[in-house]
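Please fill in the sequence for the structure shown.

STRUCTURE ENCODING:
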């Protein structure tokens, strides 16, 4: 699913499941500072002259700090979290450099055992082991499915400013996670006698079942059950968790959901190290808030993705200039800063650096809030939906899409163009052409900055000087520039535009009472056609603006079960046409991506999906 932004900017996938949670993988924020101030918390730089030291410990750079180990929750679904989680947890399959699905049998296998009904069997390998020595079992897959299926929720809850949801009490159950694919699995799955296999039966066909099966285990079930139910023996804890879901024991599930939602949210090393138990080649050993995150080889790892580098420290460097300077100085060996023409030029001028350029998997966009009592909410006008629609349309007419591309993106990529689709990437040429021809975005809004049209729409609505609060990454230089252009244009049309940006913007997107429009990037976690569903369906995990349209919901439900590619494109075109007609928001551009790699490290490349340049970390080698 989409996640909040990626390396260049900002926030999940979520990954609500298939890319349903594509939650905005938050594109990491770009700091305003012009230089990186190294503090006492900063990890030591591997010795430049010590090949032995360099081979066992390296630093790399990312632009947003880690804040949750459970990237399957609505709160944790961001690239900043997904990358370290990818390194510290194994999976049955992953995307290779060509975005083809590569299998990892040392962790397990999946197979479709029936088409009607759709049945998928997951089997964990004997070598699939948690870092505390506990085997990975069916309980882990059941926890990931059940928490995101919605089947067990009996109430709703809201996140606080720290991302935590209110604790459930008594028999109240709420899991802060959702996935349209898992929601199609209504019946409790079949578990093998040895507990290593689990078979899921879908209530309807699901087009992206394989994407769900690629990564079937989330946070460790035995740790969750121990913390929630007090069961210390891992095998007994797993069984207690399975029984709680199977029997719908709401008293137990209430406690389990509390642990699942909140216990894995932390910005520094937790006192209880069981919260860092993982199944992958590395284990997170040290987290300094807003400074760095260190991973070390997992001594209990039995899989095939054994890395040659003993320790990897991800230094948090929001400022792209500072990250490039750190690369030049040998303080980090890899960086993927927010791309600008100056940053690219500097990287290309370094003799000891290899530079990769490509379009990334993130796209910039503006979303509007439909239910917060603000200028785009019919409730603001006594329930007058037509008036609210005209105000939304007027605001979108002012967004200077072409000017943003010309002034900010083209200096880096002279061939950059507007992105005119909510769901299809420009590289998917046939589908993109078909969808954009039908959705009306270009025909309706063109390059934006249509001040006269915006004024006319406000006049038709009878609304004068509406105030729009815009949320974006406060420490992101490019976003600041975009906001300034947006503010200038909208105010010329009669809007009052307020800056309510925050460095914690991604964690605040659920707090819609604080803003009316958001500016950020969505990054894909998969190639699944259902990836965008959570962004637009009623109640979707990534539908922060609380948009709701019955026709869109109906089409998205059809999309989940449609395998014919031509019909998939037709459905997406119809969905996007409705989004455009309802003035849901507007797309702007596809992110240009630049990766700087020291010639001291080999095997590093990047893919346009999360986990970006970390996709094959086990193949990295340092000379």
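FILLED IN BY: designer on duty
SEQUENCE:
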């Amino acid at each position: 699913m989409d996640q909040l932004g990626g390396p260049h900017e900002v926030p999940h996938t979520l990954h609500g499941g298939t890319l349903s949670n594509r939650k905005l993988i938050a594109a990491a924020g770009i700091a305003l500072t012009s230089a990186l101030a190294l503090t006492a918390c900063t990890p030591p730089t591997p010795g430049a002259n010590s090949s032995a030291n360099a081979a066992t410990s390296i630093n790399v750079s990312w632009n947003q700090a880690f804040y949750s180990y459970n990237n399957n929750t609505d709160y944790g679904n961001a690239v900043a979290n997904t990358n370290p989680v990818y390194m510290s947890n194994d999976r049955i399959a992953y995307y290779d450099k060509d975005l083809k699905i590569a299998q990892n049998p040392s962790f397990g296998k999946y197979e479709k055992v029936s088409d009607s009904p759709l049945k998928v069997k997951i089997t964990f390998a004997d070598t699939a082991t948690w870092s505390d020595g506990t085997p990975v079992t069916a309980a882990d897959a059941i926890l990931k499915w059940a928490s995101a299926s919605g089947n067990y929720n009996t109430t709703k809850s809201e996140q606080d400013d720290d991302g935590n949801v209110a604790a459930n009490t008594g028999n109240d159950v709420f899991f802060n996670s959702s996935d349209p694919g898992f929601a199609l699995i209504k019946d409790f799955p079949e578990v093998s006698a040895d507990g290593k296999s689990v078979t899921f039966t879908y209530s309807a066909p699901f087009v992206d079942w394989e994407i769900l099966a690629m990564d079937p285990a989330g946070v460790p079930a035995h740790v969750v059950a121990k913390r929630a139910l007090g069961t210390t023996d891992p095998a007994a804890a797993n069984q207690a968790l399975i029984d709680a879901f199977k029997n719908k024991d709401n008293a137990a599930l209430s406690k389990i959901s509390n642990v699942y939602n909140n216990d894995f949210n932390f910005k520094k090393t937790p006192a209880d190290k069981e919260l860092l138990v993982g199944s992958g080649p590395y284990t997170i050993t040290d987290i300094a808030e807003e400074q760095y995150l260190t991973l070390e080889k997992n001594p209990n790892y039995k899989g095939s993705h054994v890395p040659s580098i003993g320790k990897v420290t991800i230094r948090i460097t929001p400022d792209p200039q500072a990250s490039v300077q750190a690369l030049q100085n040998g303080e980090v060996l890899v960086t993927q800063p927010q791309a600008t023409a100056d940053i690219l030029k500097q990287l290309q001028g370094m003799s000891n650096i290899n530079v990769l350029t490509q379009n990334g998997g993130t796209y910039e966009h503006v979303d509007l809030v439909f239910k917060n009592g603000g200028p785009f909410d019919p409730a603001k006008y006594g329930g007058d939906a037509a008036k609210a629609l005209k105000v939304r349309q007027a605001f979108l007419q002012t967004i200077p899409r072409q000017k943003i591309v010309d002034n900010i993106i083209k200096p880096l990529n002279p061939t950059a163009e507007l992105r005119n689709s909510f769901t299809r990437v420009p590289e998917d040429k046939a589908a993109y052409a078909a969808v954009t021809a039908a959705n009306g975005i270009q025909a309706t809004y063109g390059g934006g900055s249509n001040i006269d049209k915006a004024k006319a729409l406000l006049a038709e609505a009878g609304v004068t000087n509406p105030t729009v609060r815009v949320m974006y990454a406060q420490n992101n230089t490019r976003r600041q520039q975009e906001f300034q252009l947006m503010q200038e244009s909208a105010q010329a049309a009669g809007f009052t535009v307020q800056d309510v940006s925050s460095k914690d913007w991604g964690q605040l997107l659920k707090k819609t009472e604080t803003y009316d429009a958001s500016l950020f990037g969505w990054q894909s976690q998969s190639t699944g056609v259902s990836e965008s569903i959570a962004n637009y369906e009623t109640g979707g995990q990534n539908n922060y603006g609380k948009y709701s349209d019955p026709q869109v919901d109906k089409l998205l439900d059809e999309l989940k079960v449609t395998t014919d590619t031509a019909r998939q494109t037709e459905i997406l075109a119809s969905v996007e046409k409705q989004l455009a007609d309802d003035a849901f928001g507007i797309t702007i551009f596809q992110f240009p991506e630049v990766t700087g790699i020291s010639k001291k490290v080999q095997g590093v490349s990047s893919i346009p999906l999360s986990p970006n340049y970390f996709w094959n970390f086990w193949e990295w080698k340092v000379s």
